[in-house]
Amino acid sequence: AGDSDRNGEKNRSDPSKSKKPDETAEKTYLSDAVRIIELEHKLKQALENVRQAETVRESLKEATAMTECLQSKLEELKAKNAALVADKAAARQSLEPSTPSASSHASPHKYKDDRSASSSSSSDRLHREYRKMRKELAAAVASKDSARAKQERAEKERDSLMKTNVRLLKQSTEKDDMNAKSLSTILHLKQLTEQLNQEKDILEKRVKGAEQVALAARLAANAKERVHEEAIREKERTEQQLKKTEEKIEALLTEKEEVESRLSQSKAQMVSVVKDLSTVRQRCDELTTESTAAAQEKSGIMEMAAIAKKEAAEAAKKASAAVSANTASGSGRSRVGGKVKSEFTMEQMETQVKVLKGRLACNVCNERDKQVILTRCRHMFCRQCVDKNIKNRSRKCPGCGQRFDMKDVGDVWL
Predict the structure, then answer these.
(1) 20 to 30 Å CA-CA from 52: which of 17, 68, 229, 363?
(2) Whole-prediction pTM value?
(3) Sheet hosting strand 372-374, strand order edge to edge
């Protein structure tokens, strides 16, 4: 009872212990949720940086296109500048004063003044165009420098964005890993809570059972000694029964071995008996055929014996009558003797006719006369009975059972 009370107190103190892991699980769950929110915010920032990097890439593409256009314009301006320089050099060569002789160059002053005025106007125009080209060239160089600076800045921003992108990708992978871990931990915690609840229910049931057991133990304390004594007695009885059963088992094993040996011997005998039985069956078939033939012959002999007995009895009667008649007169003797002699011959003839008809009739059907002889055994039958046996593939003599072939069948004329 004391042990059960202690177990109950321990089980009651277990729910407080089970609450602690629940609180720690909730804390870890909250910290994981906060970290997930932070990682989501960082992921959004990384996506915005990626978008900015894409815009910077587009601006870089536009700047490279601008620089290519400016380079083409600068080359055109250089070509124009070279053409103007060549024209200016040609104009200077044409404006240089020549030193001809007085006799050969005696042109008027008016022609010289027109030529100098036209050359001065063309040189002014060329100077203006040259200045304009210089300004355009300076502007193109400045725009080129600014585009180059923008390109360098864009490249720097692109490198920084690439680094941030890599860092954010790492953070996103870490976030995914943390999400997976947090989900696994959440599931594990749910399972643990379920297990703890189940264990709690089991412990409560055990506490109730322990209380009931304690009450039953108090009631069964007195009966325990009696049960122990009865158990000892039953143990002794069972040991005795076990000994007896072991002895019986040993005897049965010996009997089993003997039976198995006998069974093997009986099997061998059975095999030999089966062989003998097959031979005996064959012999029985032969004997049955012989017995049928012998029975038929016996019946014929019995009939003949009965006929012979009748004939002997009649002959004895007739002989006694003849002896009594011989003592009479000679004249009467001759008359009576002739009469007796005629009666004896008629009955004898009838019996002889019957015997001869029995001998001529077939022993199988007893209806038709004998027409065929089997040369192997010299028995005679009617042709229909022999043909019937040949059709049924039982080529054995109906009288003695001896086998015969078609060659052994011959005709008989009686």
Answers:
(1) 68
(2) 0.25
(3) 379-381, 372-374, 409-411
